[in-house]
């Protein structure tokens, strides 16, 4: 295992250029780049992340229709898809690296729409429903997350940070906008119920994701024909087997997994945790809105800052907001202003963290295996997001208090900050204009 990454085949950073030049270059990006960015945002709007607000209203409707416990609905509609679906991302990333983003996006979007349409046909069969939901989420993740980060990295190499931030903003905005719509469709006056809503959502996915993948998603250099197969031009960077053996990648992955767990746990245990500290459910709901709103700010600010620096230390204050927010939340008993401060810190970090992973991977390891590395990192981080709320709740049930699990979680987020502080200096920007073979470079 090594700590360094190769710096060959790179170009000097453009961080010395002014903000006017930075924004001007983004505004004057080629039409293909703008179309690809638009396509990425559309794919994220109809991704499982963008449609996540639906499950809040689907689960009670499903329990009422089938007589199943709501806990069973949470397991089937939320936990299993979130834990199992992202496992496919490293493999999908490999297909994107080998076959190209458009081909993977088109096939995944078709399967995503078709499997979503099958969900209401499973009726009350929980096992069948679980299998179809997992497959639907898997292809939804493949059509979105497996594709968009690679497309942004290639089209906007000097604006990756803000591009990744926009990718994170899209599902956040979608969740906020779609939430009342789904309530109206499922349990409101529209009267579609959970089954009718899934059929409608499947149609929307087909009408949005498939044309988007076909006509908007692209990469700057088109693949060239070599007989029956398509060969993509080789991109600069470090091969996957060498990258995952470096301390840099291991540190990034552990740091992001630990840091992301903090805001996610607080979101899931907010009512019970803060009721122990004298806050009403209405107050907690309001502060959660502040968390979500601040996450958008964190995404945009984090993306802009990352694009404009060559110093990895800027990652440290972004992640440090998590343990600071947790400590304030833990020691606070009854102060509403302090509660807002804690939630704002957690929200900012939650947003900024979403763009950190792909940015750091692209910066340290280039684009040769970017989609695979990003998929693997995201899968491990998502595993943390799925398990951490359950583990904290389980410890709380065993001990009767949130003290032990929240203190343990805070300690892990401090570890995340330390690992981020120990990251080595960024290598110069990888050169995307040429594509030499870097497979012999030392990792």
Automatic annotation (TrEMBL):
It is a multi-pass membrane protein. It is found in: Cell membrane. Residues 36-428 form the Major facilitator superfamily (MFS) profile domain. The chain crosses the membrane at residues 40-62, 74-92, 104-121, 127-149, 161-186, 198-217, 248-266, 286-306, 313-332, 338-361, 373-392, 404-423. Keywords: Membrane, Transmembrane, Transmembrane helix. The keyword Oxidoreductase does not apply. PANTHER family: MONOCARBOXYLATE TRANSPORTER. This is MFS family permease.
């Amino acid at each position: 295992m090594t700590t360094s990454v190769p710096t060959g085949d790179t170009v000097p950073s453009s961080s010395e250029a002014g903000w006017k030049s930075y924004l001007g270059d983004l505004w004057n990006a080629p039409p293909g780049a703008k179309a690809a960015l638009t396509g990425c945002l559309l794919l994220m709007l109809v991704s499982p992340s963008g449609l996540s607000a639906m499950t809040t209203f689907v689960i009670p409707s499903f329990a009422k229709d089938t007589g199943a416990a709501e806990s069973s609905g949470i397991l089937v509609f939320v936990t299993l898809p979130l834990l199992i679906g992202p496992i496919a991302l490293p493999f999908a990333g490999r297909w994107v690296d080998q076959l190209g983003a458009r081909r993977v996006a088109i096939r995944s979007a078709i399967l995503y729409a078709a499997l979503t349409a099958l969900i209401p046909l499973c009726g009350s069969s929980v096992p069948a429903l679980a299998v179809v939901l997992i497959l639907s989420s898997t292809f939804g993740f493949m059509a979105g997350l497996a594709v968009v980060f690679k497309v942004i990295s290639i089209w906007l190499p000097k604006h990756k940070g803000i591009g990744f931030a926009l990718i994170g903003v899209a599902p956040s905005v979608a969740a906020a906008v779609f939430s009342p719509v789904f309530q109206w469709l499922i349990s409101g006056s529209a009267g579609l119920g959970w089954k009718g809503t899934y059929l409608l959502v499947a149609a929307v996915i087909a009408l949005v994701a498939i044309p988007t993948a076909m006509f908007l998603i692209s990469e700057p250099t088109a693949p060239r024909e070599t007989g029956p197969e398509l060969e993509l031009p080789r991109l600069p960077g470090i091969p996957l087997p060498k990258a995952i053996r470096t301390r840099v990648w291991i540190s990034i992955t552990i740091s992001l997994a630990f840091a992301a767990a903090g805001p996610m746990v607080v979101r899931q245990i907010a009512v019970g945790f803060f009721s122990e500290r004298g806050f009403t459910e209405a107050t907690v709901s309001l502060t959660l809105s502040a968390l979500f709103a601040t996450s958008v700010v964190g995404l945009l600010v984090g993306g802009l800052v990352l694009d404009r620096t060559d110093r990895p230390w800027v990652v440290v204050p972004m992640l440090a907001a998590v343990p600071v927010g947790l400590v304030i939340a833990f020691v606070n008993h009854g102060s509403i202003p302090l509660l807002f401060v804690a939630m704002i810190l957690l929200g900012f970090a939650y947003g900024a963290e979403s763009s950190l992973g792909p940015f750091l991977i692209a910066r340290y390891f280039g684009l040769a295996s970017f989609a695979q590395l990003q998929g693997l990192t995201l899968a491990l981080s998502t595993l943390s997001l799925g398990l951490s709320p359950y583990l904290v709740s389980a410890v709380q049930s065993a001990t009767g208090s949130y003290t032990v699990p929240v203190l343990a979680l805070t300690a892990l987020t401090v570890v995340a900050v330390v690992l981020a502080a120990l990251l080595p200096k960024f290598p110069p920007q990888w050169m995307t204009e040429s594509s030499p073979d870097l497979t012999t470079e030392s990792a």
